[in-house]
Amino acid sequence: MAGSGLKRRRRRRIHLSKLYTLTCTQAFFKQDHSQIGGPGYSRLVIINEPDSPEADSSSYSDNYVRTTKYTLATFLPKSLFEQFRRVANFYFLVTGVLSFTPLAPYTAASAIFPLLFVIGATMVKEGVEDWRRNKQDIEVNNRRVKVHRGDGNFDSKEWKTLSVGDIVKVEKNQFFPADLVLLSSSYEDAICYVETMNLDGETNLKVKQGLEVTSSLREDFNFKGFEAFVKCEDPNANLYSFVGTMELKGTKYPLSPQQLLLRDSKLRNTEFIFGAVIFTGHDTKVIQNSTDPPSKRSMIERKMDKIIYLMFFMVVLMSFIGSVIFGVTTRDDFKDGVVKRWYLRPDSSSIFFDPKRAHVAAFYHFLTAAMLYSYFIPISLYVSIEIVKVLQSIFINQDIHMYYEEANKPARARTSNLNEELGQVDTILSDKTGTLTCNSMEFIKCSVAGTAYGRGVTEVEMAMGRRKGSPLVLQSDDVEYNKEPFAEEAKVKGFNFRDERIMNGNWVTEPHADVIQKFLRLLAVCHTVIPEGDEDTEKISYEAESPDEAAFVIAARELGFEFYNRTQTSISVRELDLVTGKRVERLYKVLNVLEFNSTRKRMSVIVQDEDGKLLLLCKGADKLSKNGREFEVETRDHVNEYADAGLRTLILAYRELDEKEYKDFSVRISEAKSSVSADRESLIEEVTEKVEKDLILLGATAVEDKLQNGVPDCIDKLAQAGIKIWVLTGDKMETAINIGFASSLLRQDMKQIIINLETPEIHSLEKTGEKDAIAKASKENVLLQIINGKAQLKYAGGNSDAFALIIDGKSLAYALDDDIKHIFLELAVGCASVICCRSSPKQKALVTRLVKSGNGKTTLAIGDGANDVGMLQEADIGVGISGVEGMQAVMSSDIAIAQFRYLERLLLVHGHWCYRRISTMICYFFYKNITFGFTLFLYEAYTTFSSTPAYNDWFLSLYNVCFSSLPVIALGVFDQDVSARYCLKFPLLYQEGVQNVLFSWRRILGWMFNGFYSAVIIFFLCKSSLEPQALNHQGKTPGKEILGGTMYTCIVWVVNLQMALAISYFTLIQHIVIWGSILVWYLFMTVYGELPSEISTSAYRVFVEALAPSLSYWVITLFVVVSTLLPYFIYSAVQMRFFPMYHGMIQWLRYEGQCNDPEYCDMVRQRSIRPTTVGFTARLEAKKRSVRRSEPES
Question: Transmembrane ranges (predicted)?
């Protein structure tokens, strides 16, 4: 019998109507149903007649979905608009347009080419990214589904061809192509199982059921001639509501969310369904919900905008100064018939040098100078940074150390905009379940009839043992143990329970064996689990809505109560008979399932056993009868102990129902569930509350959500790096505190500031029920506790005391009020650890917003579930854990990783490198452009601001594009101040990013100053060296072309060698691009100079005939380059030797071969371990300090 049940692999067409109490009996229309046909409820769908005139008149969208940013028609205008929204690009556009006027100091082509190159490169990048999105759209839109063609036959068609009113047949493990109304399924009562992971991130299966009137349409030919009309709500984004009616053969039937199958959900455990298309394309609820993620920009990028504005100011200032001087000089050019600047021919000038209109000439000079000095602004800055960030993201994605082999999941940087922000994180806000823990539940302990069972030791208990010096836990100051008891036995996933008193059938000899039997039977029967048998191994696996529920069923099986089959209205269990002592097969008729919800926090089933008894079995019971409290005191004590051990607990109880009571309940629950009114849920809850009472206590369960591997080590390293860690969890306070100890967020010597509303005053007010009085008193109480906490911090002063703030959700609601939140933040920032318990998703997002806006520093949120989405989007950086709770968090995140422990490498290694690279890269960009641009200003000043550029037009244009761009990109991708090993060995190095020392205004202005003095040295040394002497043996003196070519050569050498001095880690690629850029300059000067003079203009054969043959050119180049770089070299050497930054100390440590000297390394590392730090390293240091304090006393 069992074997045949397994071999059929659940393909029976079972009735589950009564199981889920969703049978659509007589329709119950409430007054709210009159909304149909009114505003917001005007949609009319003619089913199975999509080509009818009425259907054609409805202007519903087609089923083609587009997620791309551009179309072929809009790409050019929209992309150009995006590019010229940037101030720098708009500035270059204006100067490019002005280059076509006589005002331009250079040719139009030389001005337009770099702009076209940069804009074109960025547009190509945008186009490629959008093309990838378009490929995904094409793949989705071209998926195929079976569609009724009108004669009882179904043809396979593409999703994009679907129309409203079509009838489709979706088969097992396929996605729904549109929003459908469920008509029928492979099950007789139109039940189907749906996975909504793509919608809400939940992996548990949802049960949907079609109307009873359409449930018989289970064959293709049944739809020949089928006609129906649906009137329903208009398209909206609410995933959990649907109001409508179906008119079939003159009768109207109410439609609810129970009949709605949403696009991108997947059909599971059901062979097929038939559905009618209601919403298509962009009208579907999932697309209505697909809002663009919030636009996030890094702190460095925002600061870079300010530097651009500063550079604009400098350009305007220099242009203004030059124009004033030029105007005054022009006015005095022609006096008493004497011409001072005769070579400018002011006597024949129309306007530019006309002494009679000097003020107009000065204004025109201002425009010309603003165009000439545009080279102060690095035109290739934005595109270079985008290229670098994309390449950095590739390195993050390819990092083998962040690849989770078990799940085949690498790290994924879903946006490259925030790479450098990873190196500046000040506060991490973390979810607990599934993020710090595995969200893989294990049944480990239980309490039955007042007796505690289970000898397993949890990770929290081991941490508690270490705190208390328990002999049960191996003691060591430098090793973290994760001892698994009974490791030699084969372990069953979800079951880590060991107790010889109750295992192997020994429970029958226990004093309360009858209670234990009922307890185990409840575990085997009270659930919505679906068993799946394997034909080959004949083993049963379970498909459960949650990890907890799977753990309960597995525990029941391992303890002798094996749930093995589910039929249309029954559950089959193999259990040990208490009387005969033999295993028997028992059938329980399932009448109702009262599903779990967050309000009731319990789940019940009503079953009828083989003796005809009606039983209500409840998990999460809290309403016990007077006669059912026999073991209450002992059970409550055990539950508190389990919570202290970090376990999740549930109370188990039952009661017997009489037939009259059940019949009344059945009628009322059917009415409530058939209601289409707004208060449907409250009606259902009211009915269930009346039946879930007077329960008899059996015991309690305790399951462990184990910490992920490496969590304590990761937290320890992040704490040493100076990063604050907050935990925002929905768990109760005791569980959260103990997980805090296990993960080293808390330690024994920490002073805990606990804020909650569990006070006699509040409890007495709650009994009166006056909401306003309760709210006022609660708010005052929370404020008082926060003020007292701040007083404790202030009293501690500079002492080495570490504080931990722990606050529950009820108190947090008041702490986040506008008039309290900043005081609360001050208290929280002063604590080493912050744990917010019983937090709702909205509270998580609000806390994240408060931290982000309150201290102005970078925040990172990390979570794995749909309830973490708000927090991830609110934070500066959102990191999604691609765990077992679906992909909603990952899809809303900026970066996805598979395990919390990878956060250590992501931040301390990649974050630090990216921050350093981008910071240095931007500073260098402005340095090289100031060096180049200021020589233009100096030369113009030398020529009395006559708007004459020092260099050939194409020399100007190609400086940023060809001769100085690749080395800076190579720095942004490859440079490392220290290796990954040293980043992890000395975590305090990360503080360089948190404190922003590498991109402070002091450092930025220092690089700018470097550019200014480099320009001054280059200009004056070149001018002075060339001015008094002949250039060659023929006695020719240098002209503008010679001076310009020499200065340009020196600039190319200086900026590239400056890059070589700034680099800490040379690779072959960096050698190639640095020396290659210099070589390209010489090749360009040679080739360009050989072109006809009409093209090469002032550069015609200058290098071949004048510069290259001259020894003085090479000597001047060498002398000027060394002189220019010498100040920076001396400054860097002195700083490195006598005033090293933290990365400099580590470089010295490695250079002097002391990286393996424990004493020296410990001395360097001690700077990162402060009394207010969390983590097990800080805990050991605290223990050492305690010992040192006690020594004098002894």
Answer: 87-105, 111-128, 307-328, 362-383, 925-942, 954-974, 1004-1026, 1046-1065, 1072-1091, 1111-1131
